[in-house]
C-alpha cells in the first residue's frame, strides 16, 4: 500500500506537511509505521496542490518514479510551495504494475487531484481510454472521474463488491473539499486549528489524531468533517 496525505485549511508550506514532521511522507517512504502491505514506498512520489488565482483553483502536480528520499531538488523547493489544499503520496507499486511517473498519484481530471492506497483487479473496472497509465490506480482514478466525485462512496462500494479482495482507500480534493474512502487500509484524521489533515498514518505522535473506521467515506469542507458508513452493494458477502 502506498501512503497518502491530504490537507484543507489555511495556506501552509508543502514541506511542513510532507518533509518536516517526524513521521511525515518522507519518513513513511522508507519507514512507515502502519503499513500492512509492502515494507517501504520506494516506487515514486507525487505532490499535488491547488494554486489559487482569480480564475479559481488550479491543480498543480510534481511526480517522480524515484524514491522521495533520493530527490536532490524537492527539499529546496518544497518550503516555497504554499497551498490551502494538498494531495501528496509515496508509492509502493503493486506486483505487475508499471513503475513510471504517470502511474504515480495524484491523478487529475483538471479539477480534482486523487490518490489511491491499495489494489484492485483491473478486470472489474470499465475499459477507459482516459487513464494516464495501465496501473490499476490510474484506471480506478479515470473511473471515479468519469462517474463524478459526488458518487465516490457508491463507486467504491460497487467496485469493492465486484472485487472482494480489493483495497480501496482513495483520497481526493478539489481545492474546497477533501474526500476520502477507507476500504481495507488505515486512515487517520487530525483536526488542527488551521485546517484538517487526512493521512494513511499519523505524521507525528500528537494525541489529537483519530483513526477513521474501515468502510467509511470522509468529507472535509471548511465548515465540517462528515463520516458516512459505506456498505457493500447487494449480492456481496
Ligand atoms: N496498486 C497501486 C500501484 O501499484 C497502489 C499501490 C499501493 O497502494 N501500494 O501503484
UniProtKB/TrEMBL annotation:
It is an enzyme of class 3 (hydrolase). It catalyses: gamma-L-glutamyl-hercynylcysteine S-oxide + H2O = S-(hercyn-2-yl)-L-cysteine S-oxide + L-glutamate. GO terms for biological process: ergothioneine biosynthetic process. Pfam families: GATase_4. Its EC number is 3.5.1.118. InterPro entries: EgtC (IPR017808), EgtC-like (IPR026869), EgtC_Actinobacteria (IPR032889), Gamma-glu_amide_hydrolase (IPR052373), GATase_2_dom (IPR017932), Ntn_hydrolases_N (IPR029055). Signal peptide: none annotated. Keywords: Glutamine amidotransferase, Hydrolase. One of its GO terms (molecular function) is hydrolase activity, acting on carbon-nitrogen (but not peptide) bonds, in linear amides. Pathway: Amino-acid biosynthesis; ergothioneine biosynthesis. Catalyzes the hydrolysis of the gamma-glutamyl amide bond of hercynyl-gamma-L-glutamyl-L-cysteine sulfoxide to produce hercynylcysteine sulfoxide, a step in the biosynthesis pathway of ergothioneine. This is Gamma-glutamyl-hercynylcysteine sulfoxide hydrolase. It comes from Mycobacterium heidelbergense.
Amino acid at each position: 500500500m502506498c501512503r497518502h496525505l491530504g490537507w484543507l485549511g489555511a495556506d501552509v508550506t508543502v514541506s511542513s506537511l510532507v518533509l518536516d514532521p517526524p513521521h511525515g511522507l518522507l519518513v513513511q517512504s522508507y519507514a512507515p509505521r502502519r503499513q500492512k502491505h509492502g515494507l517501504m514506498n520506494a516506487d515514486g512520489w507525487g505532490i499535488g496542490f491547488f494554486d489559487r488565482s482569480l480564475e479559481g483553483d488550479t491543480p498543480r502536480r510534481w511526480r517522480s518514479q524515484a524514491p522521495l528520499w533520493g530527490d536532490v531538488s524537492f527539499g529546496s523547493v518544497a518550503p516555497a510551495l504554499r497551498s490551502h489544499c494538498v494531495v501528496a503520496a509515496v508509492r509502493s507499486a503493486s506486483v505487475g504494475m508499471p513503475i513510471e511517473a504517470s502511474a504515480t498519484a495524484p491523478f487529475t481530471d483538471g479539477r480534482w487531484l486523487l490518490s489511491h492506497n491499495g489494489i484492485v483487479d483491473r478486470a472489474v473496472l470499465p475499459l477507459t481510454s482516459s487513464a494516464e497509465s495501465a496501473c490499476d490506480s490510474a484506471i480506478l482514478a479515470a473511473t471515479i472521474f468519469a462517474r463524478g466525485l459526488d458518487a465516490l462512496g457508491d463507486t467504491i462500494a460497487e467496485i469493492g463488491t465486484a472485487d472482494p479482495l480489493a483495497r480501496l482507500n482513495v483520497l481526493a480534493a478539489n481545492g474546497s473539499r477533501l474526500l476520502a474512502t477507507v476500504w481495507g487500509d488505515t486512515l487517520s484524521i487530525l483536526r488542527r486549528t488551521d485546517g484538517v489533515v487526512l493521512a494513511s498514518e499519523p505524521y507525528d505522535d500528537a494525541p489529537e489524531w483519530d483513526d477513521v473506521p474501515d468502510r467509511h467515506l470522509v468529507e472535509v469542507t471548511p465548515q465540517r468533517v462528515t463520516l458516512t458508513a459505506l456498505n457493500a452493494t447487494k449480492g456481496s458477502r
